[in-house]
Amino acid sequence: MKNHSAWPMWCVLAVTLLFTSVSMAQSQGEESADSRWFTMDAINTGLDDVPEEAKRMSPRETIRSFLNFTEEENYADAAHLLNLADIDPSEQATRGAELAKQLAEVLRRGEWLNASNLPGRQDAAIEDPSGQNPQAGQPRRNIELAALRVDGQAYDVRLGRYRVGEEDPVWLIMPESVSSIPTLYEEYGPSMLESYIPERFKASFGVLKVWEWLAIPVFLVTIGIVGVATYYLVGLIARVLPSGVSTIFADQIGVPVALIVMSLVTQMLLDYVVSFSAVATTTFRVLLIAIMAWGAGTIALRLVDTIMLRMTRRLVGEIDDTKPKDKRRLLTSLYALRRVIILITVVSVSVYVLGQIQLFESLGLSILASASVLAVLVGIAGQAVLGNILSSFQLSLAKPIRIGDLVIFEGQWCYVEGIFYTFIRLRSWDERRLIVPVTYFTSKPFENLSVKSTKMYRFMELTLHLSADISQVREKFFEFAKEEDSVIEHHKLLCYVTGQTEHAQTVTCYLMTSDPMAGWTAEMNVREKLMAYIRDEHPDWWPRDVVVISHHDIARGERAAPTSGQQKRATGETSESNDSSDSPDGSAE
Fold this sequence. Notes:
The protein is α+β, with helices and mostly antiparallel strands and 589 residues long. 53% of the residues lie in helices and 15% in strands.
């Protein structure tokens, strides 16, 4: 009995599960259908029949039909591309044509719209053969056509897909976007100046109107005059200010200030005087944002450079190795800080510009899809630049050289005057500037005469005759060396004979100096004094080549005694002479 009584319960449970599954399937089907379009009872009942020229099956067809109708000023047919559900049917014919005309002006001026960039599929699904887009292949029932801002508020113009009963779904401008058309028209509609333009100049010529081709050159010339006037005004202010750091700063910001003023004036003219088509407006907008960001960044960098210049003059003064090591290390760190500020500024300006022109939204997926290719191209093209940048940071961190160090680079004595991103500026002893790429500098051996201490041994060589008295030379060298202020550690003064030939000897004198450049001067002074002493007191100490033309030694001041052979020859000659004189014929009696 108990087994038979359980059958009704199992039957009820099975029927319930079946009913539930059928209901879920139906709800999923309805949800799936709703994700492809919006269901409506009727569309634009206050308008006439839809013209055959109006293609509304895909977003691309809808916008192309709308642009064709408005180009022909057929705004009544263009109204069929708008969803006028929020407007009373009795007013749809009048209001629809007016709103279509206003939207055409907004799209022409507000955003550069190209129907070919819109989806051509009826379901507006994204086609991505690479498969990297996660939304590829999924149907969409609304897409963004344009994103415009009015007084800081964002307004989207969107297309939606609508279906009435069993009819084919169509794409229309959504009611929410239709309601915002008047607000957008007030911002992006024709300016007051356009009301005075003759109709024949309003015809299209390429991507712009005829009057725009004529007005843009005048517009650019006007902006250029404003920029030149601003540049000279800043220069005049720089000359009026008292000489100093402020004058240097004002003199360096003439160009960026002029560009910023030009950008501001351009924006004011576009907002209140003239309104060009979206092609020109978009181009101007991108240029204005880039110029404004570049000008502000340049002024910030000039301010940093001016502050560094003031600190350099106050703390270090003239850049050389005579200043304390701590001050030169501080100046090197300031240059490293300048490079960090430049890097942050460039990155910030780039992000700001890209964010303002909204490149991330339109190009983000493409950039991600080709990131590896871009990385390879940037790595190859920017290898030298990136190598210089990394090398400059390496120099700033390791500090093998500091600002003001005296180095011998490729045989030239130079002071390190600046370490920048891609190059090092060296000041030679004759005030020339050597610009050396950072990677080239770090790949070559160089001698840093200031790395530990500025002290330096100097030496000079004198070539004297073998008869020179070295003790007197050494005594005079010590005397002259001690008279030089830059010669230090007098107990390290040395003077020795370091070489000898058959006619001369080499005398080398060593002296310790406080720094290399002063040591060079001290060496020259001591050399001149020693040469003057030998010239005036002991000219016979100079080396000389002896050519014997006589047995008389000029240096000794006496005649050498004849040898025995010379005496015999002289005696024989005398005897012969005497015999000849006694006998004219040469015979002896």
